[in-house]
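Dear U.,

For the methods section draft, I wanted the exact inputs and outputs in one place so we can describe them consistently. I've listed the two proteins in the order they'll appear in the manuscript figures. Please don't edit the token lines directly; just add comments below if something needs changing.

First protein:
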Amino acid sequence: MCRHLAYVGGPVALGELLVRPPHALLRQSWEPRTQDSGVVNADGFGVGWYAEGDPVPARYRRAGPIWGDLSFADLARVVRAGAFLGAVRGATFPGADGEAAAAPFTAGPWLFSHNGAVEGWPDSLTALAGALPAGELLRLEARSDSALLWALVLHRLRAGDAPGAALADTVREVAAAAPGSRLNLLLTDGDLIAATAWRNSLWYLPGPGRVAVASEPYDDDPRWREVPEHTLVTADRADVTLTPLKEPSA
């Protein structure tokens, strides 16, 4: 299990949302409030952010817990960005991929994270993986369910799908192949955020002129809104749209 957060809006220090709030990702790494599977997220962390004038995000990832990285604490204090995605990881399955398995995953302008787990991994997704071009499988950063989910989403994005459609169709396809999976996906290109609530908690904090979408609130601001189960969220600095997602037919 994991916790993640995406933000677009006016420039802020990364630590203003990821470290300093009373229930920020830093604290969620050892004391999440709405996580119902696992109790600690100490198997890696990462953050990707967009520098002004550069559409390709920078990324900082580590294999250990966020609370043990003093270099990140320093970086988060001084780096400012108008868009970023951060995540802390609680590994569902054993693996030796280390830092490569930590979100966010990236390609071109995109940052991606997965909060959840694929039931029956890896056998349940053998057919879906086999439908991807061999080159895309060889470029997987890690041998994890999250990395394969990213490959499935990215394949759709490269085919021209809109961000929300790429997430929604991937979730429905994976849920049909692996019923019971937890598939909260989070995607941003620095302007738009798309996310799914699928068997895990998801919240958003609207404007003005900014939006945050997160696994759980990082503070007690009463403007936080919980996303209903089986919902696609698309958001930018001005607007948030919620679209119901149907479960696949049995």
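Second protein (the one for the lower panel):
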Amino acid sequence: MYERALAGREKALGPDHMHTLTTVNNLGGLYINLGWLQEAERMYEWALAGREKALGPDHMHTLTTVNNLGLLYSNLGRLQEAERMYQRVLAGREKALGPDHIHTLTTINDLGGLYRNLGQLQEAERMYERALAGYEKALGPDHMDTLTTVNNLEGLYRNLGWLQEAERMYEWALASREKALGSNHI
């Protein structure tokens, strides 16, 4: 359906129209889900070039595509390129939305995971703790986004051998999830 929509939009509106570029970006996401990573990269690069030209490098739609490229590069093991993308998104979101906006915090959390994969564990901890503080303030200690970051910190602490800190994070996440979802939730 996306490919059909893309062909129609490209023909009717042109390859650089915002509706066409939105379809291109969405098609990139579908290709990732299908495991077609080269095709996804091609779509995201097309969407990024068009959005940068039409909207500028710091527009939220442009940064969404930059973030998508960061996720793709991370999946491809191109971690330095992923870091460059995430840093760009973080700078843009901090400037436009502020340091405590949910979208900014999500990028900070994603950077934490990237730094963990790069073996930069102190930087990962700094990102996760920053995201956690922001999520707690904005969403509360029991929100699923907060708990995802708690879980990320638990894994990092476990990897570092900081078992008491890991246990504290695990117990927090478990208690909150049982409260929200019930003890029998899968």
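Candidate sentences for the figure legend, describing the second protein: The mean pLDDT is 94. The chain is about 85% helix and 0% strand.

Thanks,
Y.
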